[in-house]
Amino acid sequence: MVADARTLNAWRRWGYRLLPGELFSYLLHMRPAEWPIMAGHTALGYVLAVGFGGVARGERLGQAVSGLVIWVVLLNGGTLAINSVFDRDEGDIGYLIAPPRLPRYLLAFSVALLAGGQLAALTLPPPFQIAYAICFALSILYSVPPFRFKAVAGVDWLINMWGFGTLTPFATWAATGRPLDLGHGLVLLAFCPLFAGLYPLTQLYQFDEDRRRGDRTLALIIGMQRGLDVALGCILLAFALLGWAAVVLRVSGVLLLLPPGRAFLYGFFGTVLTSSAVPVLPAT
User: Fold this and answer.
1) Which of 113, 116, 124, 162 is the most exposed place for a label (fewest CB within 10 A)?
2) Are 181 and 56 spatial neighbours (Cβ–Cβ below 8 Å)?
3) For 4-19, what is each residue's pLDDT tens digit?
4) Which residues have C-beta within 8 Å of that of residue 265, sequence separation ≥ 6?
5) How many domains does one find in the chain?
6) CA separation, residue 150 to residues 69, 86, 99, 145, 237 (Å)
7) Spatial distance between the Cα atoms of 31 and 96, rounded to a whole number of angstroms
8) Dist CA 52 CA 65 (whole Å)
9) Is residue 11 part of a domain?
10) Rounded distance, CA 170 to CA 168, Å?
């Protein structure tokens, strides 16, 4: 944390005038700067479920939007907030430059977000409720002692590849109520190794913070070169799964490569080119 965290820029100054005291700090620790990317990845499941034509017609749009808000704001926001409570970062972190001092009730606030999201999930189909419950549990295991699996190399990787990679786009698919078939299931599964490949890259700019806390992250354990090799292998596996899905669905493989390819480019360039916007892949 820096002394001028509240006056870092015009956005911060405006925010603290609008939400005085610690109120704006609660919002910042939910890291809303990540929400557009998170929303785009989550919304992919809706596009897969109803197709471009269904999107244009607004088919099942209400359920999809509800699922999107629950997943991005309550689950992801609550996960990142509770992560801040136990990390107590002093330097820049993913999607939050110069984090402000932790608000007094941030832990209670983050738990309320996560639990409120689970209650809100009851308004959507059971598969969405189950996916939310799984990621709720993963969020606690990821950040909260004595578990704190984000500090266990390999376990943090597994949580992120499944929680952020596959279950996140599945959320809006599930919100539509459409049963999951093999072909589309393979597309969603492909995001697991794809984000497994991206995850080591997201830790490159957090080496010092992770080392200071004593966290044994995957990137710290295996080193940069091996991390890049693992990333390449996982991404190749992702595209192999997409090729299989193209055969099952009898569509052009090029169409299936577009969303994952875009996700890879966003993640890669967001990580490598801008240290101030390093994607933190939470257990969501």
Assistant:
1) 116
2) no
3) 777 777 888 898 989 8
4) none
5) 1
6) 25, 11, 20, 10, 24
7) 6
8) 16
9) no
10) 5
Domain that holds residue 271: 20-277
Burial class (CB in 10 A: 0-12, 13-18, 19+), 108: exposed
- Look at residue 8 and tell me if it is in a domain: no
Q: State the burial class of residue 24 (Cβ atoms within 10 Å of its Cβ: 0-12, 13-18, 19+).
A: buried
Is residue 201 within a helix (H) or strand (E), and if so which, with residue range? helix 182-202
**Residues in the chain, total:** 284
Under the banding of pLDDT at 50, 70 and 90, the label for residue 50 is very high
Instruction: Tell me, yes or no, whether 103 lies in a domain.
Output: yes
Taking CA 113 as the corner, what is the angle to CA 161 and CA 144, rounded to the nearest 5 degrees? 55
- Write down the pTM of the prediction: 0.82
Cα–Cα distance measured from residue 241 to residue 117, given in angstroms and rounded to the nearest whole number: 31
In a domain, 32, yes or no: yes
- SS3 of 58, please? coil
Can you tell me the distance from the alpha carbon of 134 to that of 114, in angstroms, rounded to the nearest whole number? Answer: 12
Q: Which two tokens stand for residue 40?
A: 């785009």
**Nearest by Cα to 125 from 181, 162, 189, 180:** 180
